[in-house]
Amino acid sequence: MAEEPEFAERVRARFAVRKHGTMATLRRDGSPRISGTEFDFDDGDLRLGSMAGAVKALDLRRDPRVALHCPTEDAPADDPSAWDGDAKISGIAHEEPPGEDGSHRFRIELTEVVLTRVGDPPDHLVIESWHPGRGLRRRQRR
Question: What residue spans carry the Basic and acidic residues bias annotation (predicted)?
């Protein structure tokens, strides 16, 4: 997303509102697993980790597809347009060398990034999505 620095910064800001977000992985039988996790944006790369032997890390070793959702923050009831939005990232997890404590570490190769927010006036949603090779697109939903 280096070619869209303003969009990337707004996405990073949504992930930074709290320490823990949500991660979806695939279990051995193909059903989804939802886990809490921490994210780190490091030199333009998105990374995440987990404790040694965590099932979410074992899921990623078996099937590296992953979806991430930023921490959620509510809009003021009297002003829905003040909501800064919601960010989602899909990607492929690439395992990196473990930490000294045996913890798992993954770098996420981005395959989709979506930022959704209330428009102005607040009668529609603004949905921005970025895909490698396709770039940034913006649409509205009423």
Answer: 93-105
Residue 1: name the closest of 110, 137, 88, 94 by CA: 110
Q: Which two tokens stand for residue 1?
A: 């997303």
User: Which parts of the chain register pLDDT below 70?
Assistant: none
Q: What is the DSSP string of 70-83?
A: PPP-PPPTT-GGG-
The Cα-based distances of 79 to 39, 73, 74, 96, 127 in angstroms read 29, 14, 11, 43, 19
User: Would you say 140 and 128 are in contact if contact means Cβ atoms under 8 Å apart?
Assistant: no
Q: What 3-state DSSP class applies to 130?
A: strand
> Domains in the chain, ordered, with CATH?
5-141 (2.30.110.10)
d(CA 70, CA 25): 15
Rounded to an integer, what is the distance from CA 16 to the centroid of its chain?
11
